[in-house]
Design brief:
Chains A, B: This is NADP-dependent oxidoreductase. 2 copies of one chain form a homodimer. Chain A has 361 residues and is an alpha/beta fold. Chain A folds into 2 domains: 173 residues, Quinone Oxidoreductase, Chain A, domain 1 (Alpha-Beta Complex), CATH 3.90.180; 157 residues, Rossmann fold, CATH 3.40.50.720. Chain A has 10 helices and 15 strands. Chain A is globular.
């Protein structure tokens, strides 16, 4: 391609709205690391100028940002699969918004893009790290949930590790969340018996009525023994697959019910993210080891980043099912960036109903 | 085939030595269930008449019987992957011997057969459940070790679950035992760095000099922290595969060194078979769960019975390598059935060097 053509293309895509350099953006930073459950004091709202895009970069005005349990891990300064947010740094989050300035031919103003813009009203990022979102396919905030990282996590884990077969029984915690609800729906479509676990009658009703689970157990007020009894009643043939989002008494109830050759996929453990312990958390390793050997269980840690090469497959398979309503999703929308900390604290306590997003702009 | 031909064949194979019905056999029964480590009082030697074969059965005079750690599990009356030995019942064991009477065309007197004849000088069993052993291929007692259940366990676990790749690092405990030595040799042949763990300088020397391990760590006197330090020194690139035979401080040392996407294959946990606990055994489940998620570890229980359909493949692949000396094995022979209990107690304490068998007849 002659240089002139590239230049013209560049100029064409470079059309952009005028950014007034005195425009300000808001962001929420990690004020201090939490001890146990996060509190307001751990967060601080800051203002700064809206950035301008460097070479190959775009600036996005965020419309929706995602709140997810994994963010609790980023607040701690310990070994994990990702670096912690530094104190004073912007809290990490995936977000979707409208491109307001672009220095890359991949995006033009008015396009929608998903990126890791953090807890902020605006973000700047290299265009090549952003995913274009088409508002005509589905509401843009689905790129944060059912068609984003959580939905993909569920799909990637189930397709890579579950070895699910019709007639088997699957249990999943946080059943009405964006991961759990996808896990359960994929399993139902494959002909499994699906039992959810969730906090409260309203979520349990949603798991069955909206997402089509066979049953859903309210974990509130139940210790591991009570969970085991409740699960045993709903899983007369035992448990073949446990998709682990929660840890805690749910896990404690599941372990003794695992069948020969059961699969446990560890995606998260929200009950333990703030350093809580309980009877199950302190179960001796020796006991688990014996279960794993006797029942020849497979236990598999899952992180969606290991599977990103299949994200396109996911969108091609699941996108149309979301559009057609074959796969359902539920959203819980918090209003305004300044309310993100409270919404996040509520998420860790299970107060949201469906995928929690913050409407930012 | 006309009946006459089958009848003739039957008569031909039915030739047998005369069994004198007053001939007696010896067997060792479970006198009482052990509390913790087994003692002499848990075993009792009994005599009875040598059995005669029923329809389709053969009688074998045992030459060698196997002693393996799994037998400790059979002495307890708890849930496991196999039923316990009843009190008063013959202790379970694989054994190989000479057919002395046959009511089945598959075997004739003088043939050698492997079967689950137990701790006994003679056994009777249905011919269809027995495996013919050819003394010209390899010494018959290899059917109890390198070419029997332990060797097959190692091969089945490694081929099914290890996903081993050249350049990776594997750690295996009970390194000079029939499972560990096969695991290590298979991994060496595939180009891995192989670090053994064993009890005592003599075993460690054998792991390196006989079996070709890159190094072997003496676990004696080491707690989990000391094991971790010793393992870290020999595994500069971390641990990709841990083949678990032992539990205890070895496991405690391994866990923090597991790499991203490491595989842990749980085959046994000899350090914990008699109800012992230790720092690693009481490690909180919560901690393991976090490692499994952060490092996306695969933990897989292994039992060879799940893989029996591949036993022929194993013999075809490994048999010639044993015959050629490409795969080495080591044997520790105890003399006489009456010494089996002492030899077994020694096995649980790691006193044997190589595969422990009892020369019975």
């Amino acid at each position: 391609m002659p240089l002139g053509t590239a230049d013209r293309a560049y100029n064409l895509w470079c059309e952009q709205e005028e950014i007034n350099m005195t425009d300000t953006m808001k962001r929420i930073v990690l004020a201090e690391r939490p001890k146990g459950s996060p509190t307001d004091a751990n967060f601080r709202l800051e203002e700064s100028a809206v950035p301008t895009p460097g070479e190959g970069e775009v600036v996005v005005a965020v419309k929706y940002m995602s709140l997810d349990p994994y963010m609790r891990g980023r607040m701690d300064d310990g070994p994990s699969y990702a670096a912690p947010v530094p104190v004073g740094g912007t809290m990490e989050a995936g977000a979707v918004g409208e491109v307001i300035a672009s220095n890359d031919p991949k995006f033009k103003p008015g396009d929608h893009a998903f990126g890791m813009f953090g807890w902020a009203t605006h973000g700047v990022a290299a265009a090549k790290g952003l995913r274009k979102v088409n508002p005509d396919d589905a509401p843009i905030q689905t790129s944060l949930g059912v068609l984003g990282m959580p939905g993909f996590t569920a799909w990637a884990g189930m397709t890579a590790y579950s070895k699910m077969k019709a007639g088997e029984t699957l249990v999943v915690g946080a059943a009405t969340g964006p991961v759990g609800s996808m896990v359960g729906q994929l399993a139902k479509q494959a002909g499994l018996r699906v039992i959810g676990v969730a906090g409260g009658a309203e979520k349990c009703r949603m798991a069955v009525e909206t997402f089509g689970f066979d049953a859903c157990i309210d974990h509130r007020g139940k210790d591991a023994k009570a969970m085991r009894e409740a699960l045993a009643a709903e899983c007369p043939d035992g448990i073949d697959i446990y998709f682990e989002n929660v840890g805690g008494p749910t896990l404690g109830g599941v372990i003794p019910l695992l069948n020969l050759h059961a699969r446990v996929i560890i995606c998260g453990m929200i009950a333990w993210y703030s350093g809580e312990s309980d009877e199950t958390g302190s179960m001796p390793l020796q006991k688990l080891w014996r279960y794993a050997l006797v029942k020849r269980i497979t236990i598999q840690g899952l992180l969606q980043t290991d599977h990103v090469s299949r994200f396109g497959d996911f969108l091609r398979e699941v996108g149309p099912k979301v559009a057609s309503g074959e796969i359902k999703y539920a959203e819980d929308v918090a209003e305004g960036l300044e309310n993100a900390p409270q919404a996040f604290m509520g998420l860790l306590k299970g107060k949201n109903l469906g995928k929690l997003v913050v409407k930012v702009g």
